[in-house]
Amino acid sequence: MTSKEQYKFEIITKIINKEIKPGLAAKLLGISTHQIRRLKYAILDDGEKAVVHKLKGRKSNHCLNETLKKKALEIVREKYSDFKPAFAAEKLAENEHLSVHPQTLRRWMAEKDLWRIRKQKQDTYRSWRPRKEYYGELQQFDGSYHLWFENRLVDRNGNPIEVCLLASIDDATGKITKASFSANEGVTAVFNFWKEYVLELGKPVSIYLDKFSTYKINHKSAVDNYDLLTQFQRASRDLDIHLIPANSPQAKGRIERLFKTLQDRLIKEMRLAGINTPEEANIFLKVVFLPKFNRRFAVIAVKDGNVHKILSETDKKNLNRVFSIQSKRQVNNDFTIQFKNNWYQLMELQPITVRAKNRVLVEEWLDKTVRFSLRDKYLNYVLLPERPKKTNKHPLILTTHKLNWKPSANHPWRKAFKQQC
User: pTM for this one?
Assistant: First the structure.
């Protein structure tokens, strides 16, 4: 008998010997006087056996049969050997139509050395920040480099390739709002991600992201000096999206924990589905994985409502400009502009007056084309095959009408080039 059963037997024996009354015994054992009377008569009939549970040493009435256990473990060993018990239980129900509780499967897998039960670590205490109240109020965003395709995606030398998964998760609901694979976490990849995001869902109120690299220059004057702002900060400011840089990974723990979950679940889901390339994976994420994941793990926001801001017509018109990599260049005396080892000749007719030494804004759009703008007007230009020859003869200005100035015979204006706008 256990110590609790021994204590119960001693109390009931005292009642039988009339050492204490049933009411006191009921208080001591925390049961009713009716149960006290029942135990008294049971002990008089069966002795110590009366306080011992009838199923002690026997299988539970709800115990699953050995055939089911054997079949489940065979399937787990064959198909889901590296799955965690909860995930393996999901797949057994989804793909094999076997219903086994995750804790039961955990015990079975531990018995067969398919799972090792680990003690929970005592970590430093951290207080939880309450979730935001509305969907779209805060998006946590980050990228994760990992062998998402295991050994199925390799380089020329046969080495597995690490791919970057960009993802955003809504703080209020825990819903993955968008995820996509990219070669890196650079500005172009991030711009493509958020351009698709705002077109599909609208503009979130705030984005919580890393303090370093693509997203923020760590300089005390970066907020006040436009030239120090990164491309992403400038684009977010143009769209009126507030950026919150995190000082530590724990600060944006929701997205960090999400990647840990995806590195377990998503990898195995893609393996089962036969997904071998980032292109296939992006379709799989959008059509299959994200809807199923969100149905299972997303929660209901504290307050109803979607606070994503709908893109205005002006926003839509300027979206390519907003999500472009921007820099400044100076117009040369011959009205050429040098940019990334290329020379561009401004045309004679322009939508605005252009003078030599003007500083123009260079926009590299996501479609790889280049635009030059001055005072919010795009300039007309041609791409030169080589650096133009120096000459002392050049116009004073370019404007909206033709000039009386006559270019020299070898001037680019006299040659036929494909115009780019």
Answer: 0.73
